[in-house]
Amino acid sequence: MLTATSPTPGNFADIAARIGRIDWATVESGLDGQGNATVVALLRQSECRELATLYDESGFYRSRVVMGRHGFGRGEYRYYDYPLPKLIDDLRRTAYARLAPIANRWNQRLGVAVRYPDTLAEFTHRCHEAGQRRPTPLILRYGEGDYNCLHQDLYGEQVFPLQLAVLLSEPGRDFTGGEFVMTEQRPRMQSRCEVVPLGQGDAVIFAVNNRPVQGSRGAYQVRLRHGVSRLRSGRRHALGLIFHDAT
Hints:
Elements: H1 12-21, H2 24-34, E1 36-39, H3 45-53, E2 61-66, E3 73-74, E4 76-80, H4 86-110, H5 120-129, E5 138-142, E6 147-151, E7 162-167, E8 175-177, E9 180-185, E10 192-196, E11 203-207, E12 210-215, E13 218-228, E14 231-234, E15 236-241
Antiparallel strand pairs: 1-11, 2-4, 3-6, 4-5, 5-15, 6-13, 7-11, 7-15, 8-14, 9-10, 9-13, 12-13
């Protein structure tokens, strides 16, 4: 299992150090093989609790979405507004810099001409030029019986192919059920389903839409979706970091 622990919350150098200590070769191998990779203890328990506690504070967010009103499932989430809280901004920027080379390699394998810049600031500028100006980092809250339907987080023509989610609640204590799940659809095959176990503070990095798979005639695309299974009891919070902005 991968670890990324730290003594000091919310500091840019500290977040950069945590990201730097991740075994990125193992992450890349997981993404190539399954479309997801887990990082253990990316956020500290105190950071997870603070983010979850601030869910009901209105000053951090641009909008609130009740899933049942849109057929997304049951539960709700809130999109953060710019400027993002420092911890989230630091994590998003430093993670992007590590993921951009993987994203570029995937596109190269698939024959896709798009290449992603080295920094999130440059990519955000690209999004804004395309009319995608609304921030997409979000915090999700589920109660008993809630779930998130399988979906993809696509918000416009500019799409970064990888994203990151952190479980903020403690399984078995704060909630039961509510597993992070993914499905993969290969051409002319039935869907493959995978449950990704997470502990409090653990992150899962995963494909937003498609990933390359090597076939006998070269690489081809498989399509992925993600969601959350039904919560059996308690309350579950999670942080989602999407790197492209929304229209």
